[in-house]
Design a protein that fits this description.
17 helices; Alpha-Beta Plaits
Length: 627
Amino acid sequence: MQGNQVIPTDRSYWIVALVSLFVFALLALTVSLTSTIEEKSISLESSFVVSEELEPLSIINIHESRFSPLVKDNLGLSDAPHWVRISPGQVAEKEQYIFELNYGLLDQLDIWVYALDENGRIIEEIATYTAGDKKAFVYRPIQHEQFLFPIITTTNQLLILLRVESEGPIKVPARLWEKGDFIEYSGSHKLFMGLFFGYMIAMALSNLFIYATTRNLTFAVYTGYVTSLAMVTATLHGIGFRYLWSNNIWFQERAITLFACFTLILIIIFSAQVLDLKNTSKRANKILNAVKYIFIILAILSFFLPYSILLKSILIMIAVTTPVILIASLNLAFKGNLIARYFSGAWAALLISGIALTLENLGLYELPIDASYLLMVGAIAETLLLALALAISFSSQYKQAETARALAVENERKAMAAKDELLQLQMQTKEALEYSVEERTLELEIALRELSEANRELERLSAIDPLTGLMNRRYFDKRLLAESRRSRREKRPLALAMLDIDHFKKINDNFGHIAGDACLKHFASILQNHIKRPSDVICRYGGEEFVAILPATDLEGAQTLMEKVRKALEQSPAEFENQSIKMTVSIGLSAKEIAGDKEQEALLDKADRLLYEAKESGRNKVIAQAL
């Protein structure tokens, strides 16, 4: 070893090989995910126009020549509203579809879904939605980190119209899924995200433990960098907004710039420490020091300045920071510094993924891998190689100290006592490093185990009742609370109906449980045929008991609807194995404009008592009474 030059060892080559295998495995998973997206999602024809117009019908009537084809998802930075027309064509009737916008940082998003006739004229407006990260997370139609919207299918062609506004980049990566395909893709997506964040957590914790045992500040800085990079990714993918600050819109607007500044501040400090820029490249050290303080100022200003100004400032500073660090590390690498080689490789991995993402956004190159996944794989490769550079740097310092001690012992025999004490310290340091490596491996195993348990829990807590296809009791509890808050906010009545099939036990006793299941499915289909509004919710409450939430519905309107349901069941027996099974239903109905906390529980209790009254007074009737 000469100066700060490190001689490569066979062990370092093996580590690089293992890193490469891990990265290739992740790339294979991302290829599989991308393939699933391409094969399972429904292709969409999209075009856009920039307009300050507020009415959707005015946009639809604009001449085709003013619309531009949506060649790339990223439409850049713009203060003007962008209108996007999406034509999925004619989809299968009675299938459940989900419309996805895979970018969680849009400020305001309005969606209209229309049914068209053969000539492309609008027949009816099927649904409207509004969302955006300037609204609390609970108001999203589907509680998911990305924007998801249920699509009701008809026999006609569909037209989806979007109005998008955002202070940041306007990205509209739109996809349409059949519900089953989306669940399949979502499972693989969550596996990849779990691997990414599990790895990031393991890296952060292991280096934190190393810092705790060695008190080497470089490990603490690296821990902060990995944590900040993970938080940037979590913010970009909407995970932070969903799980960490879902009710804090103010912080959501500033999270990405704040975490980005922290990430860049820490990587500058880390680069200066690991590459010893103070001694190896004084010019680069001065530039990065100045840039570091600019990022500190930007982090403070992120609480005050508009997002668009901050984003442009950060991108400009990144354009300065990245070449300085890369050139400094390459210069040292060409001089034979092994640490700088791995450091350059780390930056190259992140840069390649970043450049590929940029080229795809500009429409210059089509990647075989979804760009957002590629960027995360690049981040994993970068943090792995930076960790390796850090380990080699620490090893280099360790070996330099060992050589100095050996020279001191040779030249000064009276220092034997000090040498023994130092050797003992070396043994402790080595044991601490081995312990830290075991801890890192254990943390990764725990993270993977927790991910597997979380996936099983997700399946168990699925909101769909498997027998009837209706929503289940767990979903009902959440939706009742949400609709009660909506009733209180909008000052509109909320109706709640409890429905129970009469003498259902006799049906099971006389015809068998399979026939009973067929009767439950038959009644569920009758409910779905009569309760059709997108805002209405039908749930299986338990056994033969069902419940319907009817927002913005007064008692008279709800009673009329329930009478139709009762008569429809009475007049439509279930058919099972050439047998007609007649059924009736008793219904308890109540309605109220929610004005205070816990009133939704009183409304549910009232409907339940009215159901009991209907049962006691002869069954096959609707008893309605306001709360």
